[in-house]
């Protein structure tokens, strides 16, 4: 099978680099699948999981937003934070989830509310990816 | 003479101890500098890629505009100033702060016209003491900061430009040139006007649209620039501290050398005096 080079890069360094058969990610306009030979494209991503299909195995990377850049022979995902499923700190994600839930309960102004909501979504996303809940 | 001998001895000992400490601090800073350079290196691929994409998208085919790309009349200016939390880093902090202070004095007449965003305690205290308004600040950053550490302040800073709190934003920090040279740098962060890229621009398809991509891309890019400046500043801080501590160690060694010399002289003088007294005493008995 033809493959495409994928790299997931964050400000703290590269997180994932490999040749895969298919990349699928959740873009803001909907679920997006990229195969080798795709035309150049840029799409913003949602907080979600990037699935990387390699043979029979599928690897998961949790990303907190960012965007996806596609070229015919390579895909680059630029996110402010990203972790591979096996590197996720589940305890920390759980703690973050509880913290965000507590903040949402308390009445706050719009900005803090929005921030807590995003934090909650990131935490849930990490937990889902860690449990391969996709 | 005896007391002064003891004084000199005590001074030699304290200086020795100080030099041991500065030597240790020098080595700690050297290893921190190593790691800071490593962090800056792992950030480079991200920065290069995002620069390339931003240039391609923003300068691409049709001229889509975004508030962050457009110059607007300046009513208020933001200054993001990066200093360290602790001193003992030579002129590291004072160089930056002096430059910022002079710039502000030259460009503005009242405190209404600008606001400071301070990263680092030294800078924060400096501006507070002079009654300069500090809009945002963060202190206690680790020596090897990760993006998550400054995400919030970077995000708020970029939002302050977006919501019109200020109309342009400059960054002041020490740019790392080499372990012995760090230059104070002023960099215009927002609006993003110099988006030239030497790489070939790619014509992309946009999903969903160019405007919506810029909406995500530009704030993320601006935040990355802030993080890049912070990494640069941290490398400079460690380098400056290393050099300062090296100088302190060298000075201590020099001081120990002169003190040892005067100690030996004083000791010799004491012995000579004693002999003279004994000889004089013996002569008196004859």
Characterise the protein shown here:
Chain B: This is ATP synthase gamma chain. Chain B: Its main location: membrane. Chain B: Belongs to the ATPase gamma chain family. Chain B: Produces ATP from ADP in the presence of a proton gradient across the membrane. The gamma chain is believed to be important in regulating ATPase activity and the flow of protons through the CF(0) complex. Chain B: F-type ATPases have 2 components, CF(1) - the catalytic core - and CF(0) - the membrane proton channel. CF(1) has five subunits: alpha(3), beta(3), gamma(1), delta(1), epsilon(1). CF(0) has three main subunits: a, b and c. Chain A: F-type ATPases have 2 components, CF(1) - the catalytic core - and CF(0) - the membrane proton channel. CF(1) has five subunits: alpha(3), beta(3), gamma(1), delta(1), epsilon(1). CF(0) has three main subunits: a, b and c. The complex is a heterodimer of chains A (134) and B (286). Chain A is α+β, with helices and mostly antiparallel strands and 134 residues long. Chain A has two domains: 82 residues, F0F1 ATP synthase delta/epsilon subunit, N-terminal (ATP Synthase, domain 1), CATH 2.60.15.10; 42 residues, Single alpha-helices involved in coiled-coils or other helix-helix interfaces (Up-down Bundle), CATH 1.20.5.440. Chain A has two helices and ten strands. Chain A has a five-stranded mixed β-sheet, with no helix packed on it. A five-stranded antiparallel β-sheet of chain A has the order 4-3-6-7-10, with helices on one face. In chain A, a hairpin with a 2-residue loop joins strand 8 and strand 9. In chain A, helix 1 runs antiparallel to helix 2. The two termini of chain A are 24 Å apart. The mean pLDDT of chain A is 87. With 286 residues, chain B is α/β, with parallel strands linked by helices. Chain B folds into two domains: 52 residues, ATP synthase, gamma subunit, helix hairpin domain (Helix Hairpins, Orthogonal Bundle), CATH 1.10.287; 217 residues, Pyruvate Kinase, Chain: A, domain 1. Helix content of chain B is 61%, strand content 14%. Chain B contains five helices and six strands; from the N terminus they run H-E-H-E-H-E-H-E-E-E-H. Chain B has a five-stranded mixed β-sheet, with helices on both faces. Chain B is elongated and about 115 Å long. The chains are: A alpha+beta (134), B alpha/beta (286). The interface between A and B is medium-sized, with 26 and 31 residues. Strand 5 of chain A pairs parallel with strand 6 of chain B, so a sheet runs across the interface.
């Amino acid at each position: 099978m033809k493959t495409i080079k994928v790299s997931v890069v964050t400000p703290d360094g590269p997180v994932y680099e490999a040749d895969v058969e298919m990349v699928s990610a959740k873009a803001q306009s909907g679920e997006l699948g990229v195969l080798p030979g795709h035309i150049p494209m840029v799409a913003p991503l949602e907080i979600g999981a990037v699935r990387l299909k390699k043979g029979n195995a599928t690897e998961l990377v949790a990303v907190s937003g960012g965007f996806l850049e596609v070229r015919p022979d390579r895909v680059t995902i630029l996110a402010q934070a990203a972790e591979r499923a096996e590197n996720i700190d589940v305890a920390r994600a759980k703690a973050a989830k509880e913290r965000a839930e507590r903040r949402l309960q308390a009445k706050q102004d719009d900005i803090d509310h929005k921030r807590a909501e995003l934090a909650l979504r990131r935490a849930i996303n990490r937990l889902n990816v860690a449990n391969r809940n996709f | 003479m005896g007391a002064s001998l003891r004084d000199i001895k005590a001074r030699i000992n304290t200086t020795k101890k100080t030099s041991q400490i500065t030597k240790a601090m020098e080595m700690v800073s050297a290893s921190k500098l190593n790691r800071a350079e490593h962090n800056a290196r792992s950030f480079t691929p991200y920065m290069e890629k995002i620069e390339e994409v931003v240039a391609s998208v923003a300068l691409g085919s049709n001229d889509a505009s975004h508030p962050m790309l457009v110059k607007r009349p300046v009513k208020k200016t933001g200054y993001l100033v990066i200093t360290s939390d602790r001193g003992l880093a030579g002129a590291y902090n004072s160089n930056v702060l002096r430059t910022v202070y002079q710039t502000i004095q030259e460009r503005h007449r009242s405190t209404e016209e600008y606001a400071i965003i301070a990263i680092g305690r030294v800078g924060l205290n400096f501006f507070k003491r002079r009654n300069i308004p500090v809009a945002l600040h963060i202190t206690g950053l680790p020596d090897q900061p990760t993006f998550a550490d400054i995400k919030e302040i970077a995000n708020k800073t970029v939002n302050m430009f977006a919501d019109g709190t200020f109309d342009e934003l400059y960054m002041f920090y020490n740019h790392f040139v080499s372990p012995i040279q760090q230059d104070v740098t002023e960099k215009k962060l927002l609006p993003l006007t110099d988006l030239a890229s030497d790489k070939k621009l790619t014509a992309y398809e946009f999903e969903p649209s160019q405007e919506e991509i810029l909406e995500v891309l530009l704030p993320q890019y601006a935040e990355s620039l802030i993080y890049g400046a912070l990494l640069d500043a941290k490398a400079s801080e460690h380098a400056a501290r290393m050099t300062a501590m090296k100088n302190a160690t060298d000075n201590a060694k020099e001081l120990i050398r002169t003190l040892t010399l005067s100690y030996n002289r004083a000791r010799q003088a004491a012995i000579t005096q004693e002999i003279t007294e004994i000889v004089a005493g013996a002569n008196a008995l004859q």
